[in-house]
Amino acid sequence: MVALKQQHLAAGGPKMGAEKLIIRTEKVRFIDILSMLFLRRPITSYPFVEAGDQTAADFGSTPGDWFVALTQLIQKALAGAYYPALMIGAVVKFLLNFIALNNGILGIFLNIFRCKVVIPLNREAPNFRSMIAMIDGRTELKPLPVGGGPDDRRLQVVGVSVGISNSLRRRCRQGGHGGEDDYYVDAVAEPSSGECGSTSVPLVQQQYVNGRLIRLRTFSVFEVTVMAAKIAYENAAYIENVVKNVWKFNFVGFYSCWNKFVGDHTTQAFVMTDKASDASVVVVSFRGTDPFNMRDWSTDVNLSWLGMGAMGHVHVGFLKALGLQEEDGKDAARAFPKAAPNAAGGKPLAYYKLREVVKEQLGKHPSATLVVTGHSLGGALAGIFPALLALHGEQDVLDRLLAVVTYGQPRVGDRVFSDFLRARLRVEMLRVVYRYDVVPRVPFDAPPVAAFAHGGTCVYFDGWYKGAAIAAGGDEPNPNYFDPRFLLSMYGNAWGDLFKGAFLWAKEGKDYREGTVSLLYRAAGLLLPGLASHSPRDYVNAIRLGSIAAMEA
């Protein structure tokens, strides 16, 4: 009966009631988890489950499966570790910064002798680094080779044939695509077409084929987005220093935003443009999952969702991080109204604040386009942000959207959400996944209770940075992480990543030399395969060293 209802709904049948499934993990008891595994009671019958009337009718007697029970166990463990992890994280970050700011262990003793010991008490200082920056301290953007072309092995597509004559390329550049220091979309067209910037070529191919790249000055859009996603983990002063003094871009602002359901500033993002005047691009980058914040990790795996009308079912935790107002599964306009709610002083809501800043910057820079990015939890927010713009009819912003590129992004919605994005956005979202990274494999795709699905084009890299573009919402291998058929491969890859991390510099140069912190983090992957693969370091390496093979959907 449930299957028939699901078929009816998928076919576009009317939904008159509220659609939501909120699992209150704090109310879940161990006996409830056992009940889900063995008694197979209807999922909506548990007191810790809040289901909309439409959802309850759709599910009927559908029980919670083992993925639901496993998720509750994981969230219970994360909740128990919340305060210890915060304290451990604070100590670890203090010690690592103490060592780094004093130039190592020997430097500490020398500075003690000189009475010049640096103590990192100000966590908002531009030289205070997060755990992510301790794992990968690189800040410089790596420029493309002059002129791009086949020598740019980092960004080639393997197995795709798209030609263009040199004379046509020259005409396209002379016709307004700009010079070396300007943003441009280089020509992508067949020689016979005589047209520039053919939209028939998918975005992933436009960015990779033989140097005909979407570029920010002399940098590929992938280089800029992966580095922006990486530094988004840092404090405001650190980010501003890198953007202004290292990248020579224009720093617009850093925004720490309020989550009314948590009662804290849980969402951070920054905005930059490539130039202070007459900019060509506006970049929004969301901060991702803090390694020591178990609440962030719990949000990533949470199975709760909310019906958002035409948007489909969307992960409720990510909606809350962006500024959700009500857990209303019947009226999306009430849950997430178009008009910005009155925010209390110092408590901006992420979606509304960033929408305001983006519109202001696009108005200030008439030729600019918009790029949205993020890693981990930040990637989830980057994926939902343009969907909310589409839901609210912000077509003037969407018409200038150039790219949405996420790294290690968890699932954020169901197939309806993915189809909504594909239909409403002028570009295909690109979702980069490295090896067995655990985060893109959560929350579990556990239909019908939680039918989470990825959308957009998946750019999947293996451990040696050989990539494949998997189109049409295709998934990476081992999509729910716990498939026993992949166990040996996952542990083998964890050992391979540790070995590669130790010796990659010998082949690729000093930029790829890893320190003790990075190698210890990789060693954690020997205990939990896929954890170390979530590090932004491998995503940066994949963008700089990887090649892409186009795959059929």
From TrEMBL:
Domain (Fungal lipase-type): residue spans on this chain:
283-444
InterPro entries the record matches: AB_hydrolase_fold (IPR029058), Fungal_lipase-type (IPR002921), OBL-like (IPR044819)
Spell out the SUPFAM superfamilies in the cross-references: alpha/beta-Hydrolases (SSF53474)
GO MF terms here are: triacylglycerol lipase activity
* A GO biological-process term: lipid metabolic process
Pfam families according to UniProt: Lipase_3
Residue ranges spanning the membrane: these are none
User: Which protein are we looking at?
Assistant: Fungal lipase-type domain-containing protein
Q: Which organism is it from?
A: Panicum virgatum (Blackwell switchgrass)
Q: What is the lineage of its organism?
A: Eukaryota, Viridiplantae, Streptophyta, Embryophyta, Tracheophyta
